[in-house]
Amino acid sequence: MSWTQPSRPSRRSLLAGAAGVAGAALLTGCSDGGASDADVTIPLERRMRESAVRDSTRLLERYDATTAAHPALAARLAPLRAAVAAHTAALSLTPSAAPSPSPSGGTGAAAPAASGEPVPPKPEEALSALADAERGLSESRTIDLAGAPGELARLLASVAACGAVHAYLLTSNPGATS
């Protein structure tokens, strides 16, 4: 009798799980309570939004550092970075707090990413590190769904799914034929 190691969950099953968690969060977020529920929800939502904006801002800084270290990746990273900037704006309580788009082409000198980690010297490794950051943030946001109020839970689910897609796109081989 042979034993095989269990396989990792597929992206599809992870996204289905995220949708299930989001649904559960939405159902548990509904109540027939009065103003006391709103008083509790508003500060929680504000804290969750502020944390999500900080995380997105750090991710934007990673995109900028990667583009600065590898200007040849700028065109590939620009649409993904723009989406992260849009997520930051959507999560922000004040639209003016959204970060502005970075100049295309980078600044030349390689800067460390916001986490203090240097951008890997090889473009493939830099893309992989960026994908890991996207994947980690996506997983974190999926976990946060359980405690998020309804509308924020839907937004976090959408942003988490987008982050999972970004991780895939960052590690896929553009232009390759199968």
Descriptive overview:
By secondary structure, the protein is mainly α. The chain has helices at residues 11-29, 35-69, 74-91, 123-144, 150-171.
Would you kindly provide a brief summary of this structure?
By secondary structure, the protein is mainly alpha-helical. The chain contains five helices and no strands.
* Major beta sheet summary: none
| Euclidean distance between termini CA atoms | 36 Å
Mean pLDDT: 77
Number of contiguous helices: 5
Index terms:
178 residues, mainly alpha
Give the helices and strands, then pairings.
Layout: H1 11-29, H2 35-69, H3 74-91, H4 123-144, H5 150-171
Helix pairs in contact: 1-5, 2-3, 2-4, 3-5, 4-5
